[in-house]
Structure formats: structure tokens, C-alpha cells
Specification:
about 160 residues, five-stranded parallel sheet
């Protein structure tokens, strides 16, 4: 398994494998490279060595957050390895993606997550891609959110 040039390691627990594959597929459609256990850990490979290599060599880690994610021993070390590399989140090395009605706890609570829980597919795709795209972090003017002059004038007449 080569992971040196992969953009994302997708960390998940087995019950969330469909979510992990969906996230990986959507990212790959946009030109990103991913490493996901279901596709990349082939029979005969050493699981622990593959995880170790992934956490070292992939540029960023996406944690697929669900209730079961917090219970898995392996996922704990996966997200913690990314966190240790970037504890202030300056490089967005760890990107939590929430897929169930379960709020992050502990150290994961402080990291802003991509919230896909309960969304329609097209909205979820947009939030996922926008959430990982570091180039879209520029600030843009959204316009004045206050009351329009016409509405103010009508209220005082």
C-alpha cells in the first residue's frame, strides 16, 4: 500500500464503512486522493502497519464520527495521531465529519466538524467538498444583513 501522495486518510469504524466509502468517492470525484481501509488494505497486508503508514504519510485525516467511532480502540489512535501532528488545527490535519446525532466529546469537541447528519445528499456533497477545500477559506462580502432602508421608512410612516 502506497500512501505517500494521498490527500486524505479516512478513519472510520466498520459499521460506518458505507459512509467512509461515500466520502472517499466524493473526494476522488473532485480530484483528491484517498486511502480507505475497504479499498486499500488488501488480503495479506498487515493491518496495524497499514494504519501506521497511513497516519504518517497521508496529508490529512478525516474522522467519520458516530457513536461507534468513539467506542473503537483503533479509531482513537488514528484521530489522535493526526491531532498530535496539528494540535492547534492550523493545517487542518484532522477533519471530523459528523454522520450521526452524536456530538463530539473530549478533545474532539474543540475541533470544528463538517456536519452531514440529516442532510440531503446534494447538500452533504457540497458541505463535504467545501469543508475540506483549503482554498475556499477566503472571506467574501455577504452584503449587509440588516433592515433595508425601504423597510425602515415604511415602519416610520
Amino acid at each position: 500500500m502506497q500512501s505517500d501522495d494521498r490527500d486524505f486518510f479516512i478513519s472510520y469504524t466498520s459499521v460506518d464503512e458505507r459512509w467512509a466509502m461515500w466520502v472517499a468517492e466524493e473526494l476522488e470525484k473532485k480530484g483528491y486522493t484517498t486511502l480507505v481501509q475497504a479499498w486499500d488494505f488488501t488480503p495479506g497486508t498487515n493491518f496495524i502497519q497499514s494504519m501506521h503508514t497511513a497516519t504518517i504519510n497521508c496529508k490529512r485525516t478525516i474522522a467519520i464520527l458516530s457513536e461507534k467511532y468513539y467506542e473503537s480502540l483503533y479509531t482513537q489512535s488514528e484521530w489522535q495521531a493526526a491531532f498530535a501532528e496539528d494540535p492547534t488545527s492550523e493545517k487542518s490535519k484532522l477533519i471530523p465529519v459528523r454522520i450521526s446525532d452524536h456530538k463530539p466529546k473530549g478533545l474532539l469537541k474543540q475541533i470544528v466538524y463538517i456536519d452531514l447528519f440529516g442532510l440531503e445528499e446534494e447538500i452533504a456533497k457540497t458541505k463535504l467538498i467545501d469543508g475540506v477545500d483549503l482554498s475556499k477559506r477566503a472571506r467574501n462580502s455577504q452584503g449587509f444583513p440588516g433592515t433595508k432602508k425601504k423597510e425602515i421608512a415604511e415602519n416610520y410612516l
